[in-house]
Request: fold
Amino acid sequence: MLCPNCNQPMNLVIADDQKILHCSNCGGSFFEENGINKITLNTAQTLAEDKKSDEISSNEKKCPKDQTLLKPILPNCNQSHQISSHISDDITLLHCQKCRGIFAYPDDLISLKKTQVAKIEYYKHWQLPLNLLKKTIILGVGALIFTAVIVNYTYFQKALNQANASDLIKKLYLSRSANYLFLFFKTEKPFRSKVIFQDATDKKIIKKILSPQPKTIHQLTTTEINLENDIYYQIVLTQENGLEIKTEVKRLIMNN
Ligand SMILES: [Zn+2]
Ligand SMILES: [Zn+2]
Reply:
């Protein structure tokens, strides 16, 4: 079976009880349905390191098993794969609609696993039911060092010019792992949400949408924010009627 990316023969690797087709040339891996959720970060790292080149071809990518054209999985689309809720817009995964296999480039595989580890740590920290995260993600998640800061939500309650502000942001949680920023909060009522980051060092503004549709759980994983810089952020909630409610601009402080 040939690699969808570089057309070299793929090897069968068994890791974490998953059958994985792996290409030692470009480092790409093809997983059976949900197999990608069941491997550990360690396995992902081993797979990602086994490559000879960083070749990314612009050819059409075909499933190594059935030659179906592979298509990208969109973040939070929920239509095809439960994995879609775990990918951010900087992770590209390709999937086969016939056998439901998933192809990942080595960097994206690592990004995905780190994102999943960050989420699991968050859920453990707040003792939230892990089934919210879909049970398929493996929980044996090696040693990834986290720094976290919990921002008291009463700060935001004061900041919101709303009579029922206490109904708004609950338990804002920020954590970082390497260059990944993970942000999470809940609202009692569904809101659309976005965060506006101001990078005072590089003098730029980065807007990230968390919930394009009204939701009560809002989360973001991104590598776009340079966490070494002086960063400020503001959360914007949008009501059903289009009214925007903003928090004050707050400095992002990660204790590392
Ligand atoms: Zn390859
Ligand atoms: Zn297939």
